[in-house]
Every structure is written in C-alpha cells, then in structure tokens.
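Why does residue order matter? Because the sequence determines the fold. Keep that principle in mind as you read this record.
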Amino acid sequence: MVSYFTQDISFVFKYKRLTSNWLKQVAANEGKKLGAISVIFCSDNYLLDVNIKYLEHDYYTDIITFDYCEGSCVSGDLFISVDSVKENSVFYNTCFEEELNRVIVHGVLHLIGYDDHAETDAAMMRSKENQYLELRKSLL
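Structure:
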C-alpha cells in the first residue's frame, strides 16, 4: 500500500491510484511484493534537515529513501523535495510530472536493491527508471 503525505508545503498529488498501481507493477516485475510505502512531499529545507539529522549529510538532494524492506516485501519512506524536482525538471528540460515520477521510481528502485554510487550502477538505475517510466505511460 502506498500512502501520500506532505510536510511543510502545500502540494496536491493528483495521481495517487495510478502511481500506486504502477509501483505495485514495478515491484512485481522485479520479483518483489509492494509493502508499505510512504511518499512524503516536502521542501528543500525540510529535506536538508532530514539529511543532516539522519544521514549526517549537509547538502540538498531531491530524494531520501529510508528502507524498511523485509525479505521480498518492499517497504520504506520516500522523502521528496518538490523544490528540487521543479529545478531538475528545468535543468533536464522535462515536465515536472515526468521528473517527479522519475524520482518516485528511483526511490522504489533503491528499496528493491538497486544502487547508483558507481558509474555502472547509475547507468543501470537510469535504464530501469526509463523502462518503468514507459510502463507508467502504458497504464494511462
């Protein structure tokens, strides 16, 4: 089950049912079961505070993922900075919704077990993101 929340911002996420079904399919395609996922939309400053407090990283980011997975059940919290997603959509010349979906699936892919620290891992992560963004389009 996917739940959606906001912290310190006013933001309406319109595609909850579609996104929840999409993420369930992503997990299934990876041989996993979707458990409890919380998607928390917040500001840059809120996410920076989370990054400092829990990860001891003093920098801005677009997403922080907390992993609560057990076995093949994918569960966790995805804290997403709407500010950073907006900035990234301009930087990457894409629409806000597509960039937001990319960040959401990026977080779920982390929970599934993908990493993006090494160059080859980052390339695999980007390929999976693209694959699942196409899957999302087919669910519309």
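Residues 65 and 78 are 5 Å apart (CA to CA).
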